[in-house]
Amino acid sequence: MNKWILFITCLLTGVLAVSSCNKILDKPPLDQIPDDQLKFTATEMKLYSNQFYPAFPGWFPGAYTGGIFWLDNASDNLVHGNYNYSAQLSGTGTVPPSGGGWDWGNIRAVNYFLANYQTSTDDPAQTNTYVGEIYFWRAWFYFSLLKQFGDLPWYNRPLTTEDMEALQAPRVKRNIIVDSILQDLDQAVALLAAPGQAEPLRINRGAALAFQSRVALYEGTWEKYHNGTVFGVEGADYTKYLRKAADAALKLMNAGYYSISPITDDPRFGYWRLFNQKDLSNNPEMILWKKFDKALGLTHFGQNMMAYGGGNTGLSKQLVDDYLCTDGKPIAISSLYRGDNTLQLQITNRDPRLAQTFLLPGYPRIITNGDTTGRFILPDINLLGDGRCTTGFEIFKGIAPDDADGTGSSTASIVFRYAEVLLNYAEAKAELGEGTQQVLDQTINLLRDRVSMPHLSANVGFTDPHWEFPELSPLLNEVRRERRVELALEGYRFDDLMRWSADQLIRRPLYGAKYQQFVGKPFDPPLNNIAVSADGYIFPLKNTPASGGWQFNPGRDYLLPLPSNELVLNKNLKQNPGWK
Fold this sequence. Notes:
Blueprint: H1 2-12, H2 21-25, H3 42-50, H4 87-90, H5 105-116, H6 124-149, H7 164-167, H8 174-191, H9 205-225, H10 238-255, H11 270-273, E1 286-290, H12 302-307, H13 317-321, H14 343-347, H15 352-355, E2 364-368, E3 371-375, E4 413-417, H16 418-431, H17 437-442, H18 444-450, H19 474-486, H20 493-499, H21 503-506, H22 525-528, E5 531-532, E6 538-539, H23 564-569
Antiparallel strand pairs: 1-4, 2-3, 5-6
């Protein structure tokens, strides 16, 4: 069985395209595997689904990454030392000759399963949840392709080299693809086991509903804010997706499976501790997470990468400035704001989540055998080299000082948490013009209660001269602010910028902390592409092509280009807007 799993895994990584047909011709097609090797037992179904779990972010963090907490480098939340870290944001992308993400191997794999699992003789009570997982995976992989390329061909059966007509299929409109994704997730919700009844650490009904709310919110806002552009959908009804996002989130909220985990110990670090635990089994907020175990050799190196240095990244001043003061007002109008001459001043009288997201002097960095062997102090900030902190705001969220011993870390990786579901619901309702006080009390104000912040009022009650979206209502601005703050550094920001058509936030310079507090440190702007702005802030990308903001092309870069070989092989495929 293990040899068959290895074989089929290798085979399914092939791309569903004419360009890969020659590679498949010399391999036995999937539909000719003898029945005595594949009977779709419950065990085989489980193993089949297992191959897809590494697609989750942070499931197997690489040796040189900070897991999910570096994902925001492709956004305006973090400033990576390499301005071209994201070619999509920097506008430096080119049409690839092949590949480029246009990969259909996983789609073919799930379609093969869905076309053949009915041969199973096992009790459906044992197998249904794994069938539900595969429907979830088809939705997951299609959504990933949709975000990259927009319109797609829809394949709901496993194609072979003889399916020339299907292999020459044109792309269909993105909203039709999303309708099919949401239908797959309806199937997943119906088949998957409920939380509490599902096997721990596996996809369950709660994860499917959470993902459904994410997909529907993405498409609803994409169609709304790209309406009338080359990326819009002519004649589409974006409100139906916003309604679906709200409905999916509300189903999960009413089911009572999850709740916002309270802070029962030191409130100064309660939010921070959500993200550096080794076992989240008893945390009521966690919908799906990955467990690591040093005893079993299942580790990652995220802690070593984050606790020992800045990782060639750092929080942007724009993110730091978005955190409210403890009176519930933004820094531009609050009398509690103490300025930003030092890191300590910047967190004074501010939303407690800020002081739990970047490192402050005195915070522990490394704890060995119960003793703090390394603390964060200003001279420890390294503004040079690959391990530098680029902005002075060094990542603290996600760090576990007692798990950074150089031998591999075992802190859990979160895939879905309930806070996102609440934020999805709040945003969808606000977009529909239904952002009532009751909605806010069910969602955002639960998150604020956890950190003892004032409630958000439906009428907001103030005007922020620095709102990022001045053309939108005060409520939508504050809902988006809350999303940014609560989910900071968890990998949501890039998708948010794309679906909101927020290129104005991408094409602006990104700054760090006040430089004066770091005087005396080695600092060589010409060598390290770090400099200081005219008003005294660290300016990591000043001496790069991104000095005036990333060169994102709003008429092109919201979608990636299709590889040129696919356009040659399939004349019915059309290139995305703006790409030559």
